[in-house]
């Protein structure tokens, strides 16, 4: 057998995902490359229509995600573990949060740490404010865009994936997140369509980030004198090196390459931040961080729900910043969510939500304060040295570092951090894309990882050279609208799955089996394996329950207590009633109740005796409308004992003075 057929024979690619994804990826790339201006113009028109007329969809969706996660974290479901109940976390806490940063926000922190606060600071619509107020305003909106809302989007997708993968043992795939809705249909065309969307979204997100980010990296290398120019071939060389290292890291696996690079990068990033904090306006930064946190918390709900409907002048800014950010985070959520899920096995839901929402947010806010507030402080103190180049985001970070001692060293360190962030984003992206394309296959061949890495690098170069990256980025933002609605379905599916999970693991023995001993075990086994029709249950009630209640009624009568046994229809039932004038009547009844059986159990060969998906059971009911229970395995003596237990409870409650108002029967409408 020749080499190429042998290679493809060992492939774990799922044709229903990979083929439509590649067709779409190549089609979009060709159109964006050959008609970059026309494509960008058309997509920009669509994007503006969505941002202007449907911005409320983004606002409400993201708000729902935040509220949903906060409620879930403090609910009874928070203790459920993402895996088996006794499972330990797969990664150490430091490794876990390091990989969270690297995949979720890493390169963005370097790119926008100075650029976004300076952009808000110099924004024309805020020009009526004084410099101090503009600085506060810049910090507040930067906090808003990089705070809890962004991580709530990632958190919903990551939690849904981790929960259904590690708890329900489904594939680590977006289709698994709607399992409660589609059931087995997730393995059909609908599931393939969702995973195709996720694969294309991940590919385009990484491609645009790689294409645009390499421009900043190129500018930094020119700044420190390593490169002479910012031309295409220099950028092509940078992309080649990044993708080569990324592929090698991805091949080594998450537990090696990705983890160690993430840890290295977090250490380097924290080192740079501490350097700026110490040599910058330290007291001002610490004070403004405290104020910024307070302002962010106090205005959290105002910022969350604000659509600037009453302030039309600020709406273009709102569309181009807040709505664009929400769309960008949503469009990136399949990729980041898949990676977060992959590394979060063994965490509880409460631990997952608390860590994903709080720790990265806290670090982001601290980072943006140190870099952003230092930038606005320096600009005020040194006569607008940075505001003049606020629009040149590729060079702004390095111009900012020039304002500090050892600028060459810090520029080299910044370049190193950007470079590693690129690698960690790309290698985790390669891993995620192969995971989607193979439907979470456990033993994918290494050449598949190489394939995605090569494809990422080549198409990034093609689009960078042809000027098609802007069109691709715009299209990625447009896809965020439908995906925001899909994430809402994830929330619904999580609730359904968690309710079933919680009740399943906390369900005790049936009351009908609570008094069993080893005696009559063969008869008990026959009862368990026999699924009864209505006539059989009616016969049990007539032949077992009625004689037991008749015996009790006779004994009550001997004790001067009037007890009546009545037979009812629709549903068939027999009840023992002891009437009272002042307090509630005591009632113990047994009725025939239908119960649906899972189709899985009906189809199971190794469970004999089940032919229909409906069975009938004898279930109790009481005068105070408490939920009843199944007594199908009770003998006549056990039924008598059960009635006496309920009667003793009734007498005990009736004798308690505190229950007088609840049990008083004289004023109740009993019609």
Descriptive report:
- With 671 residues, the protein is mainly α.
- Helix content is 68%, strand content 5%.
- The chain is built from 27 helices and 4 strands.
- It has a 4-stranded antiparallel β-sheet with strand order 1-2-3-4, covered by helices on one side.
- Helix 5 (93-104) packs across helix 13 (254-279), helix 7 (115-121) packs across helix 17 (349-381) and helix 16 crosses helix 19.
- The radius of gyration is 33 Å and the shape is elongated.
- The N and C termini lie far apart (85 Å).
- The mean pLDDT is 84.
Mean pLDDT: 84
Helix content: 55-70%
Count the E strands.
4
Shape: elongated
Poorly predicted spans: none
- Helix count? 27
What would you report as the Rg, rounded to the nearest angstrom? Answer: 33 Å
Can you summarize the main beta sheet? 4 strands, antiparallel
Strand content: under 5%
What structural class results from the helix and strand content?
mainly alpha
Spatial strand order of the main sheet: 1-2-3-4
Kindly, what is the distance between the CA atoms of the first and last residues, rounded to a whole number of angstroms?
A: 85 Å
């Amino acid at each position: 057998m020749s080499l190429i057929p042998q290679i493809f024979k060992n492939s774990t690619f799922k044709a229903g995902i990979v083929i439509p994804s590649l067709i779409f990826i190549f089609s979009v790339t060709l159109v964006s490359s050959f008609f970059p201006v026309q494509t960008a113009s058309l997509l920009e028109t669509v994007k503006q229509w969505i941002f202007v007329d449907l911005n409320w969809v983004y606002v409400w969706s993201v708000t729902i995600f935040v509220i949903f996660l906060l409620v879930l974290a403090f609910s009874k479901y928070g203790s459920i573990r993402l895996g088996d109940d006794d499972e330990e976390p797969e990664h150490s806490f430091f490794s876990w949060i390091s990989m969270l940063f690297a995949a979720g926000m890493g390169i963005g922190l370097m790119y926008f740490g100075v650029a976004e606060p300076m952009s808000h600071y110099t924004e024309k619509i805020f020009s009526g404010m004084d410099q101090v107020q503009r600085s506060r305003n810049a910090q507040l909106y930067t906090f808003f865009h990089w705070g809890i809302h962004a991580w709530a989007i990632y958190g919903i997708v990551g939690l849904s994936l981790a929960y259904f993968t590690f708890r329900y043992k489904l594939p680590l795939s977006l289709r698994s997140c709607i399992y409660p809705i589609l059931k087995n249909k997730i393995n059909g065309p609908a599931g393939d369509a969702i995973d195709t969307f996720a694969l294309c979204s991940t590919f385009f997100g990484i491609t645009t980030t790689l294409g645009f980010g390499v421009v900043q990296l190129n500018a930094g290398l020119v700044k420190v004198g390593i490169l002479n120019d910012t031309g295409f071939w220099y950028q092509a060389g940078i992309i080649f090196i990044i993708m080569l290292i990324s592929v090698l890291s991805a091949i080594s696996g998450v537990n090696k390459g990705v983890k160690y690079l993430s840890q290295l990068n977090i250490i380097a990033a924290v080192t740079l931040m501490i350097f700026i904090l110490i040599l910058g306006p330290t007291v001002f930064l610490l004070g403004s961080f405290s104020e910024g946190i307070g302002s962010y918390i106090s205005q959290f709900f105002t910022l969350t729900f604000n659509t600037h409907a009453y302030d039309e002048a600020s709406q273009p800014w709102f569309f181009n910043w807040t709505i664009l950010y929400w769309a960008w985070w949503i469009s990136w959520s399949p990729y980041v969510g898949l990676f977060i899920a992959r590394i979060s096995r063994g965490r509880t839901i409460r631990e997952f939500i608390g860590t994903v929402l709080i720790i990265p947010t806290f670090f982001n806010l601290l980072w943006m304060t140190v870099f952003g507030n230092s930038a606005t402080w320096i600009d005020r103190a040194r006569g607008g040295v940075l505001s003049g180049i606020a629009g040149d985001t590729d060079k702004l970070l390095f111009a900012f570092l020039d304002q500090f001692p050892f600028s060459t060293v810090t520029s080299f360190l910044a370049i190193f951090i950007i470079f590693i962030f690129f690698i960690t984003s790309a290698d985790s992206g390669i891993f995620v894309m192969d995971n989607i394309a193979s439907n979470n296959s456990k033993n994918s061949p290494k050449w598949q990882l190489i394939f995605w890495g090569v494809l990422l690098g080549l198409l990034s170069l093609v689009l960078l050279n042809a000027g098609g990256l802007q069109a691709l980025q715009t299209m990625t933002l447009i896809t965020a609208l439908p995906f925001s609605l899909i994430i809402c379905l994830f929330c619904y599916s999580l609730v359904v799955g968690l309710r079933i999970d919680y009740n399943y693991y906390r369900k005790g023995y049936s009351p009908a089996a609570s008094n069993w001993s080893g005696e009559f075990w063969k008869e008990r086994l026959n009862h368990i394996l026999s699924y009864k029709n209505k006539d059989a249950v009616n016969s049990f009630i007539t032949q077992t329950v009625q004689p037991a209640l008749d015996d009790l009624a006779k004994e009550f009568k001997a004790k001067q207590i009037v007890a009546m046994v009545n037979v009812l229809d629709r549903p068939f039932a027999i009840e023992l009633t002891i009437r009272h004038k002042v307090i509630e009547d005591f009632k113990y009844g047994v009725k025939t109740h239908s119960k649906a059986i899972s189709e899985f159990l009906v189809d199971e060969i190794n469970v004999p005796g089940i032919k229909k998906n409906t069975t009938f059971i004898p279930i109790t009911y009481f005068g105070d409308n408490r939920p009843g229970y199944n007594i199908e395995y009770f003998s006549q003596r056990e039924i008598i004992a059960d009635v006496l237990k309920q009667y003793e409870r009734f007498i005990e409650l009736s004798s308690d003075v505190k229950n007088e108002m609840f049990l008083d029967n004289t004023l109740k409408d009993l019609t």
